[in-house]
Amino acid sequence: MLMKQNNLIGFPYSYLQDFLIKHGIKPYRAHQVFIWIYHYKLYDFDHMSNLSKSLRILLKAHFYISVPQILSKTRSQDGSIKYLFELKDGLTIESVWMPAEKRKTLCISSQVGCRLACAFCMTGTMGLKRNLSSDEIIGQCIAVNNSLSEQNQITNIVFMGMGEPLDNYDATIDSIRIMIMPEALRLSSRKITLSTAGQVELIQKFKNEDLHVNLAISLNATDNETREEIMPINKKYPIEELINCLREYPLKPSRRFTFEYVLLKGINDSDEDAKRLSRLLHGIPCKVNLILFNKFSESKFRPPSKERAHTFQQYLMSKNHTVFIRQNRATDILGACGQLASQQPSPVLV
Ligand code: SF4
Q1: Alpha-carbon dihedral of residues 253, 259, 260, 266, nearest 10 degrees?
Q2: Is the pTM of this model over 0.90?
Q3: 337 flagged as catalytic
Q4: Which atom number of ligand 1 is nearest to the Cα of residue 123?
Q5: Given the residues 94, 136, 164, 260, the one annotated as active site
Q6: pLDDT of residue 8
Q7: Which of 131, 153, 221, 282 has the most CB atoms less than 10 A away?
């Protein structure tokens, strides 16, 4: 619903068209407004020179243009940068920008905290404070791009920061639409990855959105008992239900799922786990990312040795699965997978 003042960053294109039509203005003006904001990074209506004065006055009366404020930037030894943002209500969230040759990936947050309480995740220890709005989700991308040079602009986005994106369904969908729009961020859907802890009903809903972004499933265990212990969501959606849902998911040709598997020493890293994982994934187009657990102080878990991870990987590869041991990024600044939890601001280092 249109409130008195809406942020145009993150505002759905179709809503802006509806607003313009309601005020007797041709809907193609939405295209011009989006180009000013997203391509020219111009946030002052008065400088949108191809809009009439009356339209600029109308827009100013109903909208503003704003991105979340960057409180701090912390650079990792590997070149990644962790951004701490302050939201309008004073809450904070984090995003991590990770460069790798031509690819510049931004890991963004979708919620302040998370209600799913995965035992190996620092965000999960916070509980859910609130959902982010679409302007706060897209705003992370815009603010980070604005802070970086032309050659470092974001090329890929992963919803793997704070929160379960499907739990914040509408704002996540609105944000993805803006990411892939030619008038906005112009990213290919192949360059966007949505990570989920396996919310079966929401995955089923998502498949009807016709948004062919990559899906990453945070699996992390191969039997229900272990998965329930480390991911309480498994009580609602057991492994078999999740895997069946994925088998029925209409993947586009040449696309595949990513299974994220955080290796926890003595919990889910045995040869038996590798065998069960291979059987579970049989026939599903996918790749597996093995992630050595990133320690944080409150956690009782430990990562396995590199040799154990390698043996786990080798077994899966011997069964013709595509498996990577994912390079942990930004571990020195608590910016790696499962380590984001709104740290207090540190000095701006970059
Ligand atoms: S791993 Fe993801 S879903 Fe689980 S608690 Fe952390 S942010 Fe939430």
Answers
A1: -160
A2: yes
A3: yes
A4: 6
A5: 94
A6: 97
A7: 221
110 Cβ contact partners less than 8 Å away, ≥ 6 residues apart: 131, 132, 137, 159, 161, 162, 163, 164, 165, 167, 168, 171, 172
Res. 350: pLDDT tops 60: no
* CATH number for the domain whose boundaries are 69-333: 3.20.20.70
For 292-321, the pLDDT digits (tens) are 998 877 788 999 999 999 999 999 999 999
Pocket test of ligand 1: the residue of 111, 129, 164 to mutate, having most ligand atoms within 8 Å of its CB, is 164
Fold of 6-64: DNA polymerase; domain 1 (1.10.150)
- The string of pLDDT tens digits covering residues 192-205 is 999 999 999 999 99
Mean pLDDT, residues 212-239: 97
Helices (H) and strands (E) in the chain, counts: 10, 14
Ligand 1 centroid from CA 124, angstroms: 5
pLDDT higher than 90, residue 7: yes
Angle between helices 169-180 and 134-147 (to 10 degrees): 40
Does the structure show a pLDDT above 70 at 1? no
Residue with tokens 């609130």: 130
Contact of 188 with 140, CB cutoff 8 Å: no
Q: Report the separation in Å between the CA atom of 149 and the middle of ligand 1, taken as the mean of its atom positions.
A: 31
Tokens matching residue 54: 């009356």
What are the pocket residues of ligand 1 if the criterion is a CB atom closer than 6 Å to any ligand atom? 114, 116-118, 121, 123-124, 162-164, 197, 218, 338
Q: Would you state the pLDDT for residue 299?
A: 85
What is the 259 CA–ligand 1 centroid distance (Å)? Answer: 14
Testing ligand 1's pocket by substitution, the residue of 114, 132, 195, 230 carrying the most ligand atoms inside 8 A of its CB is: 114
User: Can you tell me the mean pLDDT for 257-264?
Assistant: 97
CB atoms within 10 A of CB 249: 16
Cα 162 to ligand 1 centre (Å): 7
Residues in the chain: 350
